[in-house]
Amino acid sequence: MEEKIGWSVTDAVDYKGFPADRSKTGGWVRAAQILVIEICERLSTMGIAVNLVTYLVGTMHLPSATSANIVTDFMGTSFLMCLLGGFLADSFLGRYKTITIFAVVQSVGTGILAISTRLPDLHPPPCKKIASETCVQASGFQMSIFYMSLYLIALGTGGLKSSVSGFGTDQFDDKDEKEKAQMAYFFNRFVFFISMGTLTAVTVLVYIQDEVGRSWAYGICSVSMFIAVLIFLSGTKRYRYKKGSGSPMVQIFQVIVASIKKRKLNMPSNISLLYEDCPLASRIYHTDQFSFLDKAAITAEEDFERNGSSSPNPWRLCSITKIEEVKMVIRLLPIWATTIIFWTTYAQMITFSIEQATTMQRSIGHFQIPAGSLSAFFVGAIMITIAVYDRLIMPFWKKWKGKHGFSSLQRISIGLIMSTIGMAAAALSERKRLSVAKTAGATTPTLPISVFFLIPQFFLIGSGEAFIYTGQLDFFITQSPKGMKTMSTGLFLTTLALGFFVSSFLVSIVKKVTGSDNGQGWLADNINEGRLDCFYWLLAVLSFINFGFFLLCAMWYRPNKPENALEMESVVNSSSFEEKC
């Protein structure tokens, strides 16, 4: 038996369903094959998103605000699909099949997009004159093909994104000290390769789009993803697989349903009389908060199955620990809600900020910087901030405070502050750009103002993302119940999705409220004739108000503790669904 434990991996199997052999499965090589999928996903999604607004305005001849909303809706849907991918992976398909299926879907969607940008019949003819009024907008058929390709990409991105990091950590045994250390390095390299994929997308791929052709760039994305799938499949016999125990959403619904069914029952005088079936070491302290859910633990005769089984009907009776886990999720929601606005400001960096860049001087000598490549400053800010935090701030904080850097909530607060300042900087730079446009003329193709005026807003929002992304990931994983790590990752990613959707909503509202019959207003069809700076100031004010709400929520938040007074296991390096007690 001891020999078997030595070579097999705990709770992992091989592709045949037998205990996974430590020497033949998992490890760095298999993790690298999984990383290839994520690199190509970032290359495709970001390579398309950061330069899509210029295609919609310049080729499809859509209004500025409409184009911005299409991009934010696309990105929002991509992250929202993470919930679907996570649910399918946990409940039905498993991570391996989920990654394979959705990676193929994304490859097909990108291929269709490449074809649609190549065929003349699938986009309107070029404008005959400079005046935008003479341009013919894309037809309904042309837009339907475009939307089909775009949302196939969104479906593929969301589906595979929810499982890649989890399947990567499955290749390491967290109960083995050596492999547990390797797992920590995997996450560092995972974040690094995401950033490298994004950086390649906003530089090389955007340059190919502008100088060679979009169909070539999108074709490269499609082919690279297809090759990545083949590389991923080649490791099938060497991967380690872990079985999930079903979706944690079921447990949440069970607690809610059971508490509703027993809402008229009186609570017992002693809390110890409530139902509990978890081992003592796994139990969580009962809390008085959200006490209406406690009624799900009141024992009644009809709670047990009629077939004589001692197991209760989970839709009628839930243990105190399961109820407390649901309470833990509910406590996350105020913090979750107050981080959405950051991603609304982030959305402006790949929409209006890119459109600003198209009107400004972008030349360095004889080289013309593609407008979409301005996002390189954004990605660079993220990488620089992470490096400074890792090498300077964390050692300093350790010496001064005796802690390993800022807490998750502190990092989130820093990100929210920087986004507020970033929007104020964006408003000031846009005011300067508009003053130049007023002097040069609104129809001037290239205004006599350097695109580098936009660097402060890219840098501030990028640095803010470095803090808030790591803070959110840390908070939602470590503060969620032990068996709901996958769901908490999906919950975190929904803040990105909703941030993009809120951006679309705000753009629509602002355009309707400030617009006029001739199409002008804050968000005019020609941004040189609008007041984009006012829109940025609006976002700065909303971000400041939101930061105030965040501080209140952070002070209100109180983490749960296990009943045996030990700290709950912190598994920042694992997003896998762990078996419930």
Structural class, judged by helices and strands? mainly alpha
Structural domain count: 3
- What's the SSE pattern? HEEHHHHHHHHHHEEEHHEHHH
Radius of gyration: 26 Å
Estimate the strand proportion.
under 5%
pLDDT average, as an integer? 83
**Main sheet record:** 2 strands, antiparallel
CATH topology of the largest domain: Growth Hormone, Chain: A
Shape label: globular
Give the second-level CATH assignment, the architecture of the largest domain: Up-down Bundle
Distance between the termini: 25 Å
CATH class of the largest domain: Mainly Alpha
Low-confidence stretches: 1-5, 562-581
What is the helix tally?
16
Q: Share of helix among residues?
A: 55-70%
- Kindly state the number of beta strands: 6
| Neighbour order of strands in the largest sheet | 1-2
CATH superfamily of the largest domain: MFS general substrate transporter like domains
Subcellular location: Membrane
Membrane topology: Multi-pass membrane protein
Family: Belongs to the major facilitator superfamily. Proton-dependent oligopeptide transporter (POT/PTR) (TC 2.A.17) family.
Pfam families: PTR2
Offer a few descriptive terms.
POT_fam, Growth Hormone, Chain: A, globular, 581 residues, 16 helices, disordered C terminus, membrane, 6 strands, two-stranded parallel ribbon, transmembrane helix, mainly alpha, 3% strand, transmembrane, two-stranded antiparallel sheet, PTR2_symporter_CS
